[in-house]
Amino acid sequence: MKITVMTADEQIISLDVDPHESVENVKALLEVETSVPLQQQQLLYNGKEMKNIDKLSALGVKDEDLVMMVSTVASSASTNNLSFNPDGSAVNPGAFQQHLRSESNVMAQLFQTDPELAQAVLGNDLNRLQDLLRERHRQRSDVRRQQEEELALLYADPFDVEAQKKIEAAIRQKGIDENWAAAIEHNPEAFARVVMLYVDMEVNGVPLKAFVDSGAQSTIISKSCAERLGLLRLLDQRYKGIAQGVGQSEILGRIHVAPIKIGNIFYPCSFTVLDSPNMEFLFGLDMLHLKDNVLRVGGGEVSVPFLQEKDIPSRFLDEERLSKQASSSGTPVTSGATDRSNNPPIGGQSSGGSRVDTTQGPDFEAKVSKLIELGFGRDAVIQALKLFDGNEEQAAGFLFG
């Protein structure tokens, strides 16, 4: 391996040495290069003196590492200028920085092996340089400690349960590290910061920035935002409930219709009003137009259709649990920021003789789907259609209040 030796008189020497070479033999090589007698040499690595009997590998010296050489007859000031503290920082960072700047070969090597440290050496922030030196020292210490632990595990008792657990954990961590390295190489965009989607629009004539969330079934507005837009007076409190998803928020009610302007076009939109100060306006799935009703991946070369409601497993919809919660507590419940709270109490029930069952067949399901697209929950739609014997228009009028 190659190591770089920096002398007190700013001389840079590159040596090819064996990792298991003794410090004394390295000093002998330096005596030939510098004419400084072996007995007058003092080698420092990470601020610590290297003893003659020590091996380079035992001290943690690796390929391309930097070793400082000072003469025992040199002034103490010179020694302190280029030495290191136990934490890896420079004793005299200014002198150390100026020394590295004056060595073009060392700087060229630093730019190849550690560009961040090289930039700090060329910069004017000595605190940043000291922090990087400490960080590099910690990294070398961590690697050295990990190597020592792995070496100890190789010679561990095969019948030692704790040692075998550590070996298993090391193997698992190695697989994780390899998976991380593969992701860095083949899918680096996965580590990039994803910027959430916002659009400019006007609601009731007031401009705002709306957060687009295709995972929310309904368009949601906060109470404070509704008040600012002049819509709070239209709040229908019969549609109270609890929105459950990641956390939960109280549903204060529903604003059935208000104009929103996207681009140059006006659209009617209904809003679920939440008591959520962290969310101002969320543009939900009920107002999004998904072209061809398919999911396109990547550059659009792969597309799969969205499932119809009949094809979605019931455990995903969780209608039964929600209906039980609503019936037991008397409070409508929503899940995943979806609007299933629009079930106002129905006063009259039909009485008298038998009537034709209109809640079966494809026609009834088509009516249900059409009303669900308007933003109402399935339970409320079915209940309204049953109430009006399958009359779609009367059911829609009832649902709209």
Automatic annotation (TrEMBL):
CDD domains: RP_DDI (cd05479), UBA_scDdi1_like (cd14309), Ubl_Ddi1_like (cd01796). Residues 324-344 have a biased composition (Polar residues). Belongs to the DDI1 family. SMART domains: UBA (SM00165), UBQ (SM00213). Residues 361-401 form the UBA domain. Its main location: cytoplasm. This is DNA damage-inducible protein 1. The keyword Transport applies. It comes from Fagus sylvatica (Beechnut). GO terms for biological process: protein transport; proteolysis. It is found in: Cytoplasm. One of its GO terms (cellular component) is cytoplasm. Transmembrane segments: none annotated. The lineage of its organism: Eukaryota, Viridiplantae, Streptophyta, Embryophyta, Tracheophyta. Keywords: Aspartyl protease, Cytoplasm, Hydrolase, Protease, Protein transport, Transport. Residues 320-360 are annotated as: Disordered. Gene3D superfamilies: Acid Proteases (2.40.70.10), DNA helicase RuvA subunit, C-terminal domain (1.10.8.10), Phosphatidylinositol 3-kinase Catalytic Subunit, Chain A, domain 1 (3.10.20.90).
